[in-house]
Structures
1.
Amino acid sequence: EPKRKAAFGSVGRRIPHRILHVIDQDGESLGHMHRADALKLMDQHGLKLVLLRENAEPPVYRLMTGQQIHEEQLKRAEKKKASPKPGSYVKELSFSSAIAKNDLETKTKQIAQWIEKKHHVKVTIRQAK
């Protein structure tokens, strides 16, 4: 079975690449360096190496504190939660043009809740007899 993509976090000392592009905790590029040099730098400053872009040549790693890693994980979780799911939901509501006032208010509240949850809403109004 294929390996699943690991969650964002420290890669520890398991770095499969020999040459890395390293960025420090302030976001400044330290350039290309050998894996052993990056590990020494990590130990000297008490930081952790985090893989940012594996597909780049060479792969991009960033030195981060535990707090920075935690904040980035929270940001990514929020972004994932906020993004619409594949095959986003379409909520459909239909009612007659002769609807009672309280029923109309109830359905309006329901539509507002769906819109807050970022659902698409389709409203159909049928003509009363």
Note: The mean pLDDT is 82.
2.
Amino acid sequence: MKDPSRSSTSPSIINEDVIINGHSHEDDNPFAEYMWMENEEEFNRQATLIKLFLLFVQIEEELWEEEFIERCFQEMLEEEEEHEWFIPARDLPQTMDQIQDQFNDLVISDSSSLEDLVVKSNLNPNAKEFVPGVKY
């Protein structure tokens, strides 16, 4: 009986078609592996076409992205026009006269309403004054 651990798993070299360096002895042309170079110009032309196509696809994607961003900005501007947004150049006063006019338009409430506010207040008038950082 044979020991299975000693059996050879490599094929026996009895066949005459031994392959050396990737070529069998049957190859008549020793330059067979270089035959692709015969069509090197066609290969280069196809490679250039593929590169141009990929560049075209990339440029097209960038154009689509730019168009999308442009549409987003346009929608944002239209939305701003639809709503009354705060626009500093339009809404802030430009001169001291305008500031003074706005200041004069402020209404100071009369003392009776202030007394009503104090009467209805929940604050403790006898509470100690709050001083930050001091513990009581």
Note: Residues 4 and 14 are 22 Å apart (CA to CA).
3.
Amino acid sequence: RMETDCNPMELPNNTGFEEDSDYRDFEGTDVKDMRLEAEAVVNDVLFAVNNMFVSKTLPCAEDVAYINVETRERNRYCLELTEAGLRVVAYDFDQTDDRLQTPYHETVYSLLDSLSPAYREVFGNALLQRLEALKKETQS
């Protein structure tokens, strides 16, 4: 059984590419590993959704990764992450539907904001709490 696992913890960390800026900055474009980007996206907003994880069944590559998300409203989506941004590619986990023509969003915040009013509320409240904490810090 062949499985493509998108867990960056299992990637070898001694590839040598990080040290050599010629590889990182090929023809003026940053070469990003979308698996790592996807993990960062998940970690950023996991607190504001029911469930979110990088797909372990859909293929990950340097230029694309898939993220499954379940909103607080219990709606499931499969998101595609590319250099163009994030977009919904299916209305269930680990699926893609080529007929779906959904717009790209530059950020996961923008995408979730458009999909989930509950996300918007939770994220907004977290932001307010953070600002209140900063305000207290600067006043003391």
Note: Helices lie at 21-24, 34-45, 108-115, 117-139.
4.
Amino acid sequence: MAQRLALQRLLSLRARGSLASHGRAFGTSAGRRSTFNVQDGSDFQDRVVNSPTPVVVDFHAQWCGPCKILGPRLEKLVSKLEGKVLMAKVDIDDHTDLAIEYEVSAVPTVLAMKNGDVVDKFVGIKDEDQLEAFLKKLIGA
């Protein structure tokens, strides 16, 4: 019963335009629009490989301590770039196929992708200055 009420409320909010029209994100801040969780291989193809905008791909895991530090740090810097770069988050436990395809052997692993190609990569945690340099190199700033 509670689930039914929650679903009805969600649908009524969407009908009134209170939710994003594409149905994948609820937030409206620039940080939320520029960062997204990959849903499956097809979603990765559409939103990362086929993206006209450079994409940083954060391969992470829920159990990974360094991932919990790096992820928010990277999200913050990506949101500051206001759409010049996107951030895709890939949980390796949910998307093992993508982790294997992109040769992820440790987490966190971060790929920089441009026009569907991996142009840069790092493994492990980085400080904000290093992340900023990584992103600037990707966007050519």
Note: Helices lie at 2-15, 30-34, 41-49, 65-80, 96-101, 128-139.
